């Protein structure tokens, strides 16, 4: 709660509750105040007011969608949305994209500093060594339908992976398994990090190949992280096969750019799940499920579908007008955090140029550029700060590289495993231990009601809904007719 501080302090917030006249002075630390401070403010109940009225239980801070809620202190990723700045552990994303690699940056995000040459050698060796999965995994992947979405497969695979490693499960080994910070605890944590990052590409490649009806490929030795990934997806038995180095490098840059982005929806999901001290595999699976949604990991896929629907540059003006009238949805522009250009978008555009030199320009590129140019000159989009984001060009790159549309979210999830693990590790080792995340609600439902027997009930306006009538398959109809002895369906 808000602690009493000298009234002369400049680093504080004074709050006055006009309902009661009560004032509260709250200390400001790191440009934030504790939401629990407001629990000290509550209104006196009105005469006859029900006991469960929210006004009698302390003031709550309502923040639908977490637009201005900070749930933790972090040292991992810094974003200045107004200035278009993104830094990993203090390093500008632009410098890392030019000089670093995805695995080196992964080390930076997880452990806090760029590795020395010997540390990097050990790190890369361990991650790549742990890319191989158990032989039983083949049967698991073959159990999915041929047309299963690859994100459904990948999400399930991460959870399935945890069933192999009982030593990584706090439910079996004790709830302080990852929180005590001892050398033994850190070693167990490191091993799960190696496994999850190393196996992420393997699981993704298996999800890709099972839908192609192809046999699975064992991770090769002597390849980079993205080189191994491309090899596992594309190798068809050729001798001395190696992925195109331009595509390998482009994918590495895209992986680096997508490795972390502060407390986005999926990272928050990982931490929410991880706060119960579940094993890291289950937490990563939860994050993968969150990223699956079209408002998060499916954004670059939405860009391609939008460009396809536009058809050609000649149709861009009509599309722009439809967006203004809210008849069409504009994908790939604007960002929840950035109020100016997404700094990653400039890097992606340069990467796209390199890829197109190898693959040839995508037929949608001209439409994309026409849309970009029109939006950047239109006052409607300028006023709303709708600049291209990282998804606008990354989808074009993935399409040019030959990835199917529904695989795009997988290409987002694989590198984001790094960011999820960085935040998970930070939470496990935070001073004071892990507190389970349990947000509150503002109850606006019915007050206390008496139970009424089913035969005596009548519909209550706004509180009762007739179940939807759904169509049934032929066998379901026959079964139900037999079960209910001819009752009308």
From TrEMBL:
Region (Disordered): 1-20
Keyword Transferase: yes
Keywords: Transferase
Keyword Nucleotide-binding tagged: no
Database matches in Pfam families: Citrate_synt (PF00285)
InterPro entries: Citrate_synth-like_lrg_a-sub, Citrate_synth-like_sm_a-sub, Citrate_synthase, Citrate_synthase_AS, Citrate_synthase_bac-typ, Citrate_synthase_sf
Gene3D superfamilies in the record: Citrate Synthase, domain 1, Cytochrome P450-Terp, domain 2
Composition bias type Polar residues, residue spans: 1-15
PANTHER family, per database record: CITRATE SYNTHASE
Family, similarity comment: Belongs to the citrate synthase family.
Name of the protein in its database record: Citrate synthase
Species per Swiss-Prot/TrEMBL record: Lentinula lateritia
């Amino acid at each position: 709660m808000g602690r009493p501080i000298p009234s002369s302090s400049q680093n504080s917030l004074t709050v006055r509750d006009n309902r009661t006249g009560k004032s509260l002075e709250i200390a400001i630390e790191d440009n934030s105040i504790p939401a629990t401070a407001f629990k000290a403010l509550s209104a006196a109940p009105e005469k006859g007011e029900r006991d469960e009225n929210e006004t009698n239980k302390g003031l709550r801070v309502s923040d639908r969608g977490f637009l201005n809620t900070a749930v933790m202190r972090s040292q991992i990723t810094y974003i200045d949305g107004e200035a278009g700045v993104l830094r990993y552990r203090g390093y500008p994303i632009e410098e890392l994209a030019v000089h670093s690699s995805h695995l080196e940056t992964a080390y930076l995000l997880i452990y806090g500093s760029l590795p020395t040459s010997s540390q990097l050698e050990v790190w890369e060796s361990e991650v790549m060594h742990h890319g191989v999965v158990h032989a039983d995994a083949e049967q698991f992947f073959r159990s999915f339908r041929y047309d299963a979405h690859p994100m459904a497969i990948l999400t399930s695979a991460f959870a399935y992976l945890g069933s192999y490693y009982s030593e990584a499960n706090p439910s079996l080994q004790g709830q302080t398994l990852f929180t005590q910070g001892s050398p033994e605890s850190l070693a167990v944590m490191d091993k799960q990090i190696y496994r999850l990052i190393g196996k992420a590409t393997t699981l993704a490649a298996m999800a890709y190949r099972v839908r192609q009806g192809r046999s699975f490929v064992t991770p090769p030795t002597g390849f980079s992280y993205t080189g191994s990934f491309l090899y596992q997806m594309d190798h068809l038995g050729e001798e001395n096969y190696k992925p195109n180095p331009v595509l390998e490098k482009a994918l590495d840059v895209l992986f680096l750019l997508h490795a972390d982005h502060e407390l986005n929806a999926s990272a928050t999901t990982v931490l929410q799940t991880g706060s119960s001290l579940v094993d890291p595999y289950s937490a990563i699976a939860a994050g993968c499920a969150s990223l699956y949604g079209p408002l998060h990991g499916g954004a670059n896929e939405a860009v391609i579908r939008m460009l396809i629907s536009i058809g050609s540059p000649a149709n861009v003006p009509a599309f722009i007008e439809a967006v203004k009238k809210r008849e069409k949805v504009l994908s790939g522009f604007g960002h929840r955090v950035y109020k100016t250009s997404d700094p990653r978008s400039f890097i992606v555009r340069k990467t796209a140029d390199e890829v197109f030199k190898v693959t040839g320009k995508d037929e949608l590129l001209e439409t994309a550029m026409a849309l970009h140019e029109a939006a950047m000159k239109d006052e409607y989009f300028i006023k709303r700060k709708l600049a291209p984001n990282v998804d606008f060009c990354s989808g074009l790159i993935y399409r040019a590289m030959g990835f199917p549309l529904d695989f795009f979210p997988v290409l987002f999830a694989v590198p984001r495993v790094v960011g999820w693990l960085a935040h998970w590790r930070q939470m496990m080792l935070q001073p004071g231990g892990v507190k389970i995340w349990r947000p509150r609600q503002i109850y606006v439902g019915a007050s206390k009601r008496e139970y009424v027997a089913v035969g005596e009930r009548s519909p209550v306006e706004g509180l009762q809904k007739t179940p939807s009538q759904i169509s049934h398959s032929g066998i379901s109809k026959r079964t139900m007719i037999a079960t209910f002895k001819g009752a009308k369906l």
